[in-house]
From TrEMBL:
Its EC number is 2.7.8.7. It comes from the Bacteria. Residues 4-107 form the 4'-phosphopantetheinyl transferase domain. SUPFAM superfamilies: 4'-phosphopantetheinyl transferase. Transfers the 4'-phosphopantetheine moiety from coenzyme A to a Ser of acyl-carrier-protein. Its main location: cytoplasm. HAMAP family: AcpS. Belongs to the P-Pant transferase superfamily. AcpS family. Pfam families: ACPS. Mg(2+) binds at residues 8, 59. This is Holo-[acyl-carrier-protein] synthase.
Length: 117
């Protein structure tokens, strides 16, 4: 049974501008594991796409959970990782989480579906 669905769309340029003004943005958005992956990316544009995609995923996840961000959970507490095939995943105890992330030149979007197990 579906527990919740969330979707988010973010402008990549907006994330790039925020990142240029404050590099602390990475620590506010990413977990330590995600930050390691972020730092392995050599292409500057790809780094921003990764950051924007994770931002959108965490917003979508918080919408699917129904709590929103800030009061009960912070972005850097939601770990989105890729499995051995590259599929994005989020672990959420007692639930199966389906994650999809996509990018265009200007936007990053993510959809999250949480299913009761």
């Amino acid at each position: 049974m579906i527990y919740g669905i969330g979707i988010d769309l973010v402008e990549i340029e907006r994330i790039q501008q925020l990142y240029q003004r404050q590099h602390k943005l990475v620590k506010r958005i990413l977990t330590e594991q995600e930050e390691l992956k972020f730092n392995e990316i050599n292409n500057k544009q790809r780094k921003i796409e990764f950051l924007a995609g994770r931002f959108a995923t965490k917003e979508a996840f918080s919408k699917a959970v129904g709590t929103g961000l800030g009061q009960s959970i912070a972005m850097n507490e939601i770990n989105c990782y890729n499995n051995e095939l590259g599929k994005p995943n989020i672990d959420y105890e007692g639930y199966k989480v389906h994650v999809s992330i996509t990018h265009t030149e200007h936007y990053a979007m993510s959809q999250v579906i949480i299913e009761e197990t």
